[in-house]
């Protein structure tokens, strides 16, 4: 096991003038489960592949433990790509299916058996070691495949969208299993996904990337509660955070005909900026006498709660009127479609961003 | 109603039972062709005169693979032909079923498992390994990162005395402008692991000749690949007085079956040192030449053999100075076509035409040696049909003899192995975990932030 560090690691594809990964600075702790997340083309897979040795590092470096691996071929990096291939061999026992790569690497038989046994215990497969794969359940077969990576005892596990070929139900249960297993093994793991829900539920920490740049790396809760910029604010959370532009005024931000109160010190930090963007999570909005006017377009009932979807009422700017906002409120309070409601939020749940730079202004 | 994506749709496909998982399809249209192991459900289905391979897989992967196979076909890289993707499948209860990728069955193809079934010899295995290495190098030359190199994902066709390998599964593939060394190394290390596993599996099934050692086999693959790649791409530097080495490099590449479309030649100021590096090489040197001369489209080594025979014909008929294209036309009419016309129609599905011609040439040589004088082509053909061809299995669509294989658990799914009466699937407490159960009820797209907060608080308490 070892820590991993990207030190200003950059990858520029031949013929491209913009880096696919731009000076990535990221330290992953020993035993940590780090998730790289972002939309397609953000550089997350490229970063993982730089670590794996599949993509060249054009400048900067990458270390695993205290070894600089920047120029090492993939096989000398002591990493394992999990789930790359999990075809199980029908004529071989579960034990052989798990341990055959060790045989190729000339690991002595006794050690091979021990490592397979250890992995099998961890995976709940101990009593099935002499069976053939067909006499296993679907989940057990998948764990045999995980076992293959585990017996190699690599320093780092790499997983590139490992759940993308599973259906929705299996995806959720496998997600739980991978998380539990990683926690027990304590092997440093770098996991890539485009799915922010997967990232948030699995990672010890999550690195959000966009356009080749690392936007923020933090614990899932910190990303949710204190997004560093507009990109992270909009990307993390489902349904997404409402991001509402308004005019900075004395005491708050004017949205429609309503001035949303903002703490004085936050406004002071905004300086001369005329327009600010206020971020409010759907669950932090509530119906009030005074508040942001919203024309309700759709109501979605979800148990005790309802999601209100609507557009800003009375706004004249086309760009603003087109945008849809979401509020989660108690189902008892839910108005019907076509009504106009007023919504407000506690000051401590407001996220204030500079519209021009996108950076967070509030604490 | 399912949705079909295809360049040339086949109306007969529309009436198939798309509302059933592939696993439960009625067996009347299924063909039990041998094939490699797969993590997905794969079935061969006969529709009219065609046989298609159907693979059930999530939609984005089905589409991705369809696109990849189309690209590979466009780049003239040996791979199966994609036919279409069927999406938006629902069962009668309205539950979503995975998409199906449809590819055409490659005629006269042999999966490795059926090649090993015949008490495989070292020589055959070497040829399979060579074919695999050439395929991998060809894919790498066009910038294709396979990601799942394995015998299971490859089909072989006879190619004169050798084999030609075809890519069958492009699910994990990616097309790049050019591959980095790391990407090629990655494919190679996957190849090593997968092939080692597959050889061990064949061994465990009792089908691998005892003289063959899986470890040596995978080492051979690696070293052969490196040799071939070096010949295809490496810079060669020599003294200006050795200019013949340029011609030598081109000839060596031709002999390996590659054409050099672009050769980079640089010299120093005085012209005393020359550096050469092939920049663009295309596989199929002999295939293209034969195609140009005769219109026959065959595998590389078959083409080489046929071209040799064409040269022999030319010498024999004393036409060394005649136009090559005209002689080729005569050869086709007077040599090639009569041999194939003499094959009884019920035996034509045994082997590909070019392979039959190659074998007749071989047969004639053996018979002539034995007789001590040259046997005529018509006589050699007759003897070949009687003593060899009639006894061969039909390879156009090869269905294995079940006794030879051992009884499979499911003849349509070899990945389940032999039927051996092993226990039913065991109880798995992991899948019965109440925690996992509630998680499984959760919609995958929903972020349960309260659950995250609870978990984080618990962890802090523990710490």
TrEMBL record, chain A:
Domain (ABC transporter) ranges: 4-236
Keyword annotations of the record: ATP-binding, Nucleotide-binding, Transport
PROSITE patterns: ABC_TRANSPORTER_1, ABC_TRANSPORTER_2
One GO MF term: ATP hydrolysis activity
SUPFAM superfamilies recorded: MOP-like (SSF50331), P-loop containing nucleoside triphosphate hydrolases (SSF52540)
The protein's name in its UniProt record: ABC transporter ATP-binding protein
Keyword Transferase: no
GO biological process: carbohydrate transport
One Pfam family this sequence matches: ABC_tran
Gene3D superfamilies: 2.40.50.100, Nucleic acid-binding proteins, P-loop containing nucleotide triphosphate hydrolases
Gene Ontology cellular-component annotations: ATP-binding cassette (ABC) transporter complex, substrate-binding subunit-containing
Keyword Transmembrane: no
Automatic annotation (TrEMBL), chain B:
GO molecular function, a single term: kinase activity
DUF4032 domain ranges (all copies): 227-389
Segments of skewed composition (Acidic residues): 429-440
Keywords noted in UniProt: Kinase, Transferase
Superkingdom in the source lineage: Bacteria
Presence of the UniProt keyword Membrane in the record: no
Disordered: annotated segments: 395-446
Pfam families, A to Z: DUF4032
Protein name: LPS kinase
Species of the source: Microlunatus endophyticus
Phylogenetic lineage: Bacteria, Bacillati, Actinomycetota, Actinomycetes, Propionibacteriales
């Amino acid at each position: 096991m070892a820590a991993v560090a990207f030190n200003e690691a950059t990858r520029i594809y031949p013929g491209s003038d913009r880096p696919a990964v731009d000076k990535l600075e990221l330290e992953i702790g020993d035993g940590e489960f780090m998730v790289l997340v972002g939309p397609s083309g953000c550089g997350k897979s490229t970063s993982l592949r730089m670590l794996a040795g599949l993509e060249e590092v054009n400048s900067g470096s990458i270390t695993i433990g205290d070894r600089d691996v920047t120029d090492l071929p993939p096989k000398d990096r002591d990493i394992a790509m999990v789930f790359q291939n999990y075809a199980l061999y029908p004529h071989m026992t579960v034990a052989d299916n798990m341990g055959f790569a060790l045989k190729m690497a000339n690991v002595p038989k006794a050690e091979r058996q021990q490592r397979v046994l250890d992995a099998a215990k961890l995976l709940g497969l101990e009593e099935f070691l002499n069976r053939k794969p067909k006499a296993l359940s679907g989940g057990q077969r998948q764990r045999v495949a995980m076992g293959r990576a585990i017996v190699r005892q690599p320093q780092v596990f790499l997983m590139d969208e490992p759940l993308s070929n599973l259906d929705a139900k299996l995806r959720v249960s496998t997600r739980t299993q991978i998380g539990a297993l990683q926690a027990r093994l304590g092997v440093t793991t770098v996991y890539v996904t485009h799915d922010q829900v997967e990232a948030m539920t699995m990672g010890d920490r999550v690195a959000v990337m966009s356009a080749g740049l690392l936007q923020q790396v933090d614990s899932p809760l910190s990303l949710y509660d204190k997004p560093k910029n507009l990109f992270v604010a909009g990307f993390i959370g489902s349904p997404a955070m409402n991001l509402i532009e308004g005019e900075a005024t004395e005491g708050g931000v004017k949205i429609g005909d309503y001035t949303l109160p903002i703490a004085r010190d936050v406004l002071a930090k905004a300086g001369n900026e005329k327009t600010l963007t206020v971020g409010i999570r759907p669950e932090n909005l509530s119906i009030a006498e005074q508040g942001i006017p919203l024309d309700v377009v759709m109501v979605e009932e979800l148990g005790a709660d309802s999601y209100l979807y609507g557009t800003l009422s009375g706004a004249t700017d086309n760009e603003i009127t087109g945008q849809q906002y979401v509020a989660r409120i108690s189902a008892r309070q839910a108005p019907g479609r076509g009504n106009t409601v007023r919504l407000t939020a506690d000051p401590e749940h407001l996220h204030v961003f500079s519209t021009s730079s996108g950076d967070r202004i509030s604490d | 109603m399912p949705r079909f994506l295809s360049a040339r749709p086949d109306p007969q496909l529309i009436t198939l039972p798309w509302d059933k998982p592939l696993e439960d399809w009625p067996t009347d249209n299924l063909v039990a062709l041998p094939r490699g192991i797969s993590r997905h459900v794969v079935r061969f289905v006969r529709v009219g005169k065609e046989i298609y391979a159907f693979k059930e897989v999530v939609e984005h992967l089905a589409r991705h693979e369809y696109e990849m196979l189309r690209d590979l076909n466009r780049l003239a890289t040996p791979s199966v032909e994609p036919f279409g993707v069927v999406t938006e499948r629902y069962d009668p209860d309205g539950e979503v079923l995975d998409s199906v990728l449809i590819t055409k069955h490659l005629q006269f193809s042999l999966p490795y498992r059926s090649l090993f079934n015949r008490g495989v010899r070292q020589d055959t295995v070497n040829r399979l390994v060579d074919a695999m290495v050439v395929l991998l190098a060809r894919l790498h030359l066009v910038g294709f990162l396979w990601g799942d190199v394995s015998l299971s994902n490859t089909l072989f066709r006879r190619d004169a005395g050798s084999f030609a390998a075809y890519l069958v599964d492009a699910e994990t593939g990616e097309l790049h402008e050019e591959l980095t060394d790391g990407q090629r190394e990655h494919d190679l290390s996957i190849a090593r692991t997968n092939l080692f596993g597959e050889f061990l599996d064949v061994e465990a099934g009792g089908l691998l000749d005892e003289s063959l050692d899986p470890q040596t086999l995978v080492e051979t693959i690696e070293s052969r690949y490196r040799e071939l790649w070096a010949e295809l791409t490496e810079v060669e530097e020599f003294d200006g007085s050795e200019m013949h080495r340029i011609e030598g490099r081109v000839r060596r590449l031709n002999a390996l079956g590659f054409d050099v479309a672009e050769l980079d030649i640089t010299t120093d100021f005085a012209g005393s040192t020359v550096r050469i590096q092939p920049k663009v090489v295309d596989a199929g040197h002999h295939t293209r030449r034969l195609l140009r001369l005769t219109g026959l489209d065959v595998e590389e080594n078959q083409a080489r053999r046929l071209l040799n025979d064409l040269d022999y014909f030319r010498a024999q008929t004393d036409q060394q100075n005649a136009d090559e294209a005209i002689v080729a036309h005569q050869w086709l009419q007077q040599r090639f076509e009569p041999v194939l016309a003499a094959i009884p129609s019920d035996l034509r599905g045994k082997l590909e035409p070019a392979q039959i011609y190659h074998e007749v040439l071989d047969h004639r040589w053996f018979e002539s040696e034995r007789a001590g004088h040259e046997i005529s082509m018509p006589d050699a053909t007759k003897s070949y049909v009687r003593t060899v061809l009639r006894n061969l299995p039909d390879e156009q669509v090869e269905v294995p003899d079940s006794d030879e294989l051992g009884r499979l658990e499911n003849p349509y799914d070899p990945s389940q192995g032999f039927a051996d009466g092993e226990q039913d699937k065991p109880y798995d407490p992991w899948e019965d975990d109440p925690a996992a159960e509630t998680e499984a009820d959760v919609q995958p797209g929903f972020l349960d932030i309260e659950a995250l907060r609870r978990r984080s608080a618990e962890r802090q308490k523990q710490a």
